[in-house]
Design brief:
Elements: H1 2-12, H2 15-22, H3 33-54, H4 70-85, E1 92-96, H5 102-111, E2 114-119, H6 122-134, E3 141-145, E4 158-164, H7 173-183, E5 184-197, H8 206-218, E6 225-226, H9 227-236, E7 240-246, H10 259-262, H11 276-289, H12 299-318, E8 321-330
Parallel strand pairs: 1-2, 1-4, 2-3, 4-5, 5-6
Antiparallel strand pairs: 5-8, 7-8
Helix pairs in contact: 2-3, 3-12, 4-5, 7-9, 8-11, 8-12, 11-12
């Protein structure tokens, strides 16, 4: 397994690209759209294998309940979107930023709809295609390589669309929404879960700002949006907003969304809360500067996962970030 992993990463990562791309995480607001695309691609080339090993084929958080496993919670979180769309056999649906296709397969199996997985990352799409075939779902699940800022599909060609924690990577949310609006037929629904700063986030609080920046930096995100940036942008491109709310608030306080990261499933280090920001930033810089070594071994990729997890847990505990700002919008018609 270690050798397989080593080979996979070696093939997926171009070290000369990666070190350059990843070093641009910090203060990345100045990146062009093209640079964002290659940065996020390098990021997922690095971490996909570890996400799958530690989490599964669905690379997203879930609304957790006491006594319900992570796997079941992930599936329920996905089914919620399927139900919000009203998914049924015969529908053709776009999964925007599909990862390796966990949600796509789960929704196709449950609802019998045809789902096209769009992804900019060819390494993930290759895996997605293999998993679709292995699951016997080629008749319902297909892949589409492309950037959600320029979706390679005809106007009005989908009956619905959804995304799970993908559009947070967009340098321009409204531009992605406009593309989704274009490829949907009139009357179609678009739903999703976005990573957002919550109303508890205070830009004047240095600790909040530091955690926000670290999360952006280590997860290849441009500015993490507020709730209103999501809802305003959806409406600005022509969608009717049906519903929007933070589903994290529906969770039992004993099982917050970041709880699986706290329980040691990814071998996390425990960081002191007081020195948290500096520690994470210092380790992140060291790792990212040394990322050229990744094709020689896997420890750096694992470290990046740990840093991502630690910074999310810290922000989650303060309630200043959510990975499940649920939004449902409809294209008029
Ligand atoms: C956190 S992962 C979520 C994957 C998937 N939705 C899931 O839940 O398993 C974010 C995904 O967005 C994709 N992505 C990021 N930027 C993209 C872009 N510009 N165009 C298309 N996909 C993109 C990434 O490659 C990755 O697959």
């Amino acid at each position: 397994m270690a050798n397989d992993f080593h080979n996979t990463i070696s093939k997926a990562v171009q070290p000369e690209d990666t070190v350059e791309r990843l070093s641009k995480y910090r203060r990345s607001q100045g990146l062009s759209k093209e640079e964002y695309a290659s940065t996020v691609t390098a990021f997922y080339n690095l971490i996909t294998e570890f996400c799958e090993q530690g989490w599964g084929q669905s690379i997203h958080f879930a609304l957790m309940e006491p006594g319900v496993s992570l796997e079941e919670s992930i599936a329920n979180h996905e089914y919620f979107l399927g139900e919000a769309i009203g998914l049924r056999p015969g529908m053709k649906v776009l999964d925007v930023g599909c990862g390796v296709g966990g949600p796509q397969r789960s929704l196709a199996r449950k609802f019998g709809a045809s789902i096209v997985g769009l992804n900019i990352n060819e390494y993930q799409l290759g895996k997605c295609s293999v998993y679709n075939s292995k699951a016997g779902l080629d008749h319902l699940c297909s892949i589409l390589h492309g950037d959600f800022l320029n979706i390679p599909a005809e106007d009005g060609s989908f009956d619905a669309a959804y995304h799970i924690e993908a559009i947070c990577h967009a340098p321009d949310k409204a531009a992605v929404y406009a593309e989704i609006f274009r490829v949907l037929r009139p009357g179609a629904v678009f739903v999703g879960y976005d990573v957002c700063m919550t109303p508890l986030y205070d830009d004047g609080n240095p600790k909040h700002r530091e955690l926000k920046e670290i999360n952006e930096y280590v997860s290849a995100l441009p500015q993490i949006a507020s709730f209103t940036e999501v809802t305003d942008s959806l409406q600005a491109v022509g969608f009717e907003l049906v519903e929007a709310r933070d589903r994290a608030l529906d969770a039992d306080p004993k099982t917050p969304w970041y709880q699986p990261l706290e329980s040691g499933s990814l071998n996390l280090r425990s960081l002191s809360r007081t020195a948290l920001g500096r520690k994470i930033a210092a380790v992140a810089l060291r790792i990212l500067e040394g990322v050229r070594a990744v094709p020689k071994g896997s420890s750096e990729a694992r470290e990046i996962i740990n840093i991502v997890a630690d910074s999310l847990v810290a922000a989650g505990r303060l309630g200043i970030v959510t990975p499940m700002y649920y939004h449902k919008a409809r294209k008029p018609g």
